[in-house]
Amino acid sequence: MRAQTELDSHAPAAPASGAAPTLSELEIEAIDLFIGLIKLLGMPKSVGELYGLLFVSPTPLPMETLMDRLNMSKGSASQGLKLLRSFGAVKTVYVAGDRRDHYVAEFDLSRFASNFIKGELQPHLDSGLERIKRMEHLIQQFTPGERDTAENRLVRLRHWHEKGQAMVPWILKFLVS
User: 0.70 cut: is pTM over it?
Assistant: First the structure.
C-alpha cells in the first residue's frame, strides 16, 4: 500500500457538482515522482506538479485545466509553465476550435537537463568562482593564524569548484549521446 502524499489533499473523495475531477492514482504517483525530482533541482513544487500531470495526460491541457486539477493559482501555473517551456520540458500545441494555449510534456529529458545545466547550473558555477576570488582577497585582512585556516578552506572550496566545472562538459556529452 502506498504512503499518502501531500498531493492527496488536492484530490477530493468525490467531486462536487461542477468541481474539478479527482486526480487518478496514476496522476498522483506521476506528480509525486516529478515533485521529488524537481525539488532536487531546487525548483518549486508546482513545477513538478505541472510536469507530472502533463506527463501522464493523454491529451493536451490548457492552463485553466491544470490550475483546476492541481488546485493551483494562476500565478504559480503561469510561472511554472514558463519555466518548463524555457527548459524545453513542455511545449504548446494547437487544438482546433480552442484559442487557448494547450500544453504537452516533452519526453526528451536530456534536452531539459542540458538546458537546466546551461541556464541554471553553469551561471551558479561562474558566480561561485567570482565569490571565491573575492574571499581570497578578503582573507588578506585576517591575522596570520586565521588566514592559514581560511586559506586551507578556500583551497578545498576552489578544488570542489574545479571538479564541478570539469563535470559539466562530461554531463552534457553524456546527455546528448
Answer: no
